[in-house]
Amino acid sequence: MKKIFLIICIFFLVLPLFITSRFWLGFWTTTLFFALLGQSWNILGGYGGQVSFGHAVFFGTGAYVSAVLQVRFGLDAWTSAAIAVAAGALVGAFIGALSFRYGLRGSYFALVTLAFAEVFRVLVNAWDFTGSGFGMLVPMKPGAASLQFADRTWFYYAILLLVVLAYAITWRVERSRFGAYLLAIRENEDAARALGINAFRIKLAAITLSGAMAAVAGVFYIQYYLFVDSHVGYGPAMSVNALLAPLIGGAGTVLGPLIGAIALGSLAELTSALLGKQPGVNLLAYGVLLLVILRFLPNGLMGLLKRAPRGSS
Amino acid sequence: MAVLEVSNISKRFGGLLAVSEASLEAQAGRITALIGPNGAGKTTLFAIIAGFLPADAGSVRFDGREITGMAPHRICGLGLVRTFQIVQPFGALSVRENIAVGAHLHQRARGRALEAAEKVARQVGMEAQLDKPAQGLTIAGRKRLELARALATQPRLLLLDEVMAGLTPTEVNEIVAVIKSIRDAGVTVLLIEHVMQAVMSLSDDIYVLNQGRIIAHGGPRDIAADPQVVEAYLGRRKVHA
Predict the structure, then answer these.
(1) In this predicted structure, what is the pLDDT of residue A306?
(2) Which ipTM did the prediction report?
């Protein structure tokens, strides 16, 4: 397993050397971005079985908090980023504490996360302080101090670094007691509790970590595009993107979200090359792909590889 | 010495009094059986003891400590663990991973927990199935897994809910031997069972629950001869033909 990680790392490290067009650099940067967002969903939904349908609430919090701190308070990008990630963790802990305290599971939990994302969307859309309907525009100021890069290759390496960190964390989680407990809760919460697992605490830790990771994706997004509005930040599209990558790649596996993000990104480019750039065509293709995967590969693309006994390596 | 003292537990579900002022004790190092007809309230009583259901009245003491109303995971942490009548495997995980979840209670490190799981698997005769996914096990395998997982938490009191139901006589004999060895290793056992031959050969002490009430208590011989018990199981004998 370690070998596969290393090979993938090297592949992505040298990739920019072979990319000549700005288009393909952008393609791989956004693919890695979705791989990061997908991993954040995967920790909670894939390993813990707590399916969130409103992961945008964490992503949007990362993007918005960072943007607001930079624009309204004049804070530097680094400090804003750190606070934004903490805010994502906090929102995660808050939603988790509320819904898990009252024993929400399955679709009820999914609906509550969706509702939270919608409430946040309406709020930032209505409030002038958060840019209301216009969104938040972060002024362009290239330089390491402002976490903006004139050379887009740096953005690629930045997201690559974040993805490597996130995947290393997930890899560690998978091989820890925390990870074993998450799987146990996913498989059967009552049995898990009977074996001494404090299910509430474990789920709370998972959603906090997941929220922080999604907020990291949000922070990257705002530095990369310098713009966020309520639809991008808290809209259902981002929530769907967060869960599609791991579901298609393989939920509850470390590499699943990355595989899924690559598959989805390629599919989107393929459909727009074949059918033109009508908006929504890629979503149609995503839907078809998801149906096919759910029907024939319930464990995602990773299910094609035979599952090695976990933890024995 | 009583490891477990259940005093006057009552539990009502709407109009049904499932358990009514039930009291029992499990003595250290012994196997205590809780028997009774279907629907007598045995599983409900187990759920209350293990913290899965709140009692309406009464108290549960474990090692002299009040545990009534405590969360299941805390009760398990104290050394009281239950199995489920309807087996609850972690289906997608292997047998080894399933048992390791229990072992993690006292073992943070993943590697150590997996090693401990192997040891427990040997103890219950599952070493050949360690890498099988739990959902691929037969019913006998699942019952064993249920037992192994609970055992891996290193309990001092083990609550077994019908671990022999649905097993063939050979499988019953095997699991009886396993339970005896668990007892001999110093673990107190309280079990619910319908397989009478096993109950009689295993138990040091038997309680009979009928319609939520404890109607008899004694050693295997006393219980088999108790007219109230015979009546509860077989119905009243007609005196006049």
Answers:
(1) 57
(2) 0.90
* Residue B159, min C-alpha distance to chain A (Å): 11
In this complex, is the C-beta atom of A310 within 8 Å of any C-beta atom belonging to chain B? yes
Q: Are A208 and A93 in contact (CB under 8 A)?
A: yes
In a domain, A2, yes or no: no
Domain count, chain A: 1
What number is the average pLDDT over the span B6-24? 94
Q: Does the beta-carbon distance from A312 to B114 stay under 8 Å?
A: yes
Least confident of A123-127, A205-209, A275-279: A275-279
Domains of chain B: 1-79+158-188+196-241 (3.40.50.300), 85-154 (no CATH)
- Which residue of A178, A182, A187, A198 is the best one to mutate when testing the B interface, meaning the one whose CB has the most B CBs within 10 A? A187
Average pLDDT, chain B: 92
Closest-CA residue to B103 (of A235, A206, A197): A197
- Mapping DSSP to helix (H, G, I), strand (E, B) and coil, where does residue A148 land? strand
Nearest to A180 by CA among B40, B187, B101, B159: B101
Provide the chain B residues 117-146 that lie in CB contact (below 8 A) with chain A.
131
Strand partners, B31: B189
pLDDT surpasses 70 at B160: yes
- pTM of this prediction? 0.91
Judge: A310–B76 Cβ closer than 8 Å, yes or no: no
Torsion of CA A135, A138, A139, A143, to 10 degrees: -160
In terms of Cα–Cα distance, which of B220, B223, B240, B215 is closest to B42? B215
Count other C-beta atoms under 10 Å from residue A270's C-beta.
12
Domain range spanning residue A207?
29-304
A153 contacts A16 by C-beta, under 8 angstroms: yes
How many A-B residue pairs are in contact by the CB < 8 A criterion?
94
Query: What CATH code is carried by the domain that includes residue A292?
Result: 1.10.3470
A185 in a structural domain: yes
Beta pairing class for A136-137 and A227-228: antiparallel
In a domain, A268, yes or no: yes
| The predicted structure's pLDDT at residue A310 | 46
Q: What residues in A contact B91, CB-CB < 8 Å?
A: 187-188
